[in-house]
Design goal:
With 706 residues, the protein is α+β, with helices and mostly antiparallel strands. The protein is built from 15 helices and 35 strands. The strands form 8 sheets. Strands 27, 28, 29, 30, 31, 32, 33, 34 and 35 form a 9-stranded antiparallel sheet that branches. An 8-stranded parallel sheet has the order 24-23-22-21-16-11-26-25. Strands 3, 4, 7, 8, 9 and 10 form a 6-stranded antiparallel sheet that branches. The protein is globular and about 85 Å long.
Amino acid sequence: MNLSAAWLSVYAKRGFYAGMNHSYLNMEAIYSDETEYYMYPNAPNPGDNIKIKIRTALNDADDVFLHFYYEKNKSENQNTSIMKKIVSDRVFDFYEADFFILDTSMRYFFSLVKNKRVYYYNKNGICDELNSDFNFLIIPGFSTPDWAKGAVMYQIFVDRFYNGDLSNDVVDFEYAYLGRPARSVEWTKSIETDDFVNFYGGDLQGVIEKLPYIKSLGTEAIYLNPINVSPSNHKYDIQDYDYVDPHFGVIIEDGGQELTFEKLNNRYATKYKQRTTSKKNLEASNKLFVDLVEAAHSMGIKIILDGVFNHCGSYNKWLDKGGFYKGGDYPPGAYRDARSPYREYFVWFDSNWPNNDCYDGWWGNDNHPKLNYEESPELYKYILDIAAKWVSPPYNADGWRLDVAADLGRSEAFNHQFWRDFRKSVKSANPEAIIIAEHYGDATPWLSGGEWDTFMNYDAFMMPLTWFLTGIDKHSENAKPHLFCNAMAFETTMRHQLARLNIHAMQTAMNELSNHDHSRFLTRTNRTVGRLHTKGAAAADTGINKAVMMEAVVFQMTWPGAPTIYYGDEAGLSGWTDPDNRRPFPWGEEDQTMTGLHKELTKIRGEHPMLKKGSVMFLWSDYGILSFARWDAGDCIVTAINNNAAAKTISLPVWKAGATDGFMSKLLVTYGGSYNIIPEKHNIHHGCVSVSVPGQGGIILSHDRK
């Protein structure tokens, strides 16, 4: 292989071929991960023979070793295999070793030798001293549904998406909940601070009617916020787990005995009992859900439900604090009768029952009574049956998002046992169902293969990206200016967090910019601390920066995981944290540029499957600038974002992703709150490509070989 002196000089400066004729190992060239290219099969079963690969610079390492051991015995039964060089190209050597998988979790790492110096490599990169917490992990028999890997998801807060059926709308003063009467609100009305019983009319029929629009965004799965019977618009206080709320579903009958409440110094007549406990309405609403799933499936879209199993609602038929089920078809609720068969479903504190403080509520909220699984085997079994019911015929949902999943139970040991049983119930009913947990902090104890599949990715996506691009936290409640444009802090955080995840959790992690619990990302771009009750709704729309939002979307749609669009983000919705983040979708007033950007980016994802399962590596960073590559054996994508006000010309070492010749083609660039997809070629010189990234803009390049 003949290389000119200039070629070698430039490559040495960039780290390319730095190992050649040098005493030290070229650390920038070393790479391995748990994707199928470097670990095959990457979802092995006990008894499988697994092949592990690692990449080094050409003719660089003297020896390469693979070390593997059972996870429970780090210091015992450690095996070492010398790796064989199986192939080389003009830049890299590839080494391989294999071993048989047993029926227990295994860890592995590499050691590389050059000039008698030993280097170690694991998910945290090259190091002199090994931290075993970051060794690669193999969990025999564990995999996540293939359809969920890198899937584009779309989250819908149903009441605020689209009103497809006026006949099921809540009627003013229909009932009272937590001291406030339910109200029907005009679609264009601003969100109020006390919003929980204000209904805008969105429903499942509205989702059905908008499926073509949802599909046009490249959506592969819809995540629905709770849809079970509940007195609130958010429905995280479930009243009946067996049925869809008729206000989201179908109301056939609307008469019968009226109940009365004396609240807020007024009397309110209600038909709530007849509308939401009528078996005809409940069964018709469940049938509408079946229709939604069938319509979505016919378009290649999965449906994920929100599982609120840590707590229920105070109006739940088991507690019946509101008295809606008194004298009906169910046994008396535990709040109304100490002899109720549901008594053990809850934890009781006060013998002077009943009163507001007599039972345990999640975080002290008496409208969210905590479920007492430890003392009620009947409740335990019931919820496991519910978990299986909704992913089974005729409903056929495609998975669960689990609300405050780590809070369930009164001990971590019990929590793990419950989720192991939950997984068995769900996967027995529907092996292709996904289990996604809401979790903040280290989720690895629950991602060992027998509990959750993955999680909502706050620590390894939403939070670090928000800090980098805005310097504001995900609630718009705190500012940390030292994290704004701090590429080193961002990259360090992401490396650390990603190293803790197994490949299956990472590829299916729900990567969101916004959701129902946090401020809209577009509002965070104003870099202002505030909430609805402190600043007012108009302030959430003031000083926003579409260009920064577009940077975030470019990053989101090319980073590993399942990019999840919170309804309306693609249409330009803003808003403080809840409830202001639950504004109604602006039909007819969408930001068409923002919508178009989302469509173009999901189109790019569809044309480059390696964005779902390919490898990832940071390429180059500086103040306000991030860049990374995604690649597999035959394709390479490079993304760069520039959060500085001025454009920056940067040189990217694309050779690290195997792009050593030919050119990079621009697929998309954002700038000034707009974007274009005009083709543009950038030649690769000595393994690097030079590109100008607009101020507060992003660019995506694809490798084309000559």
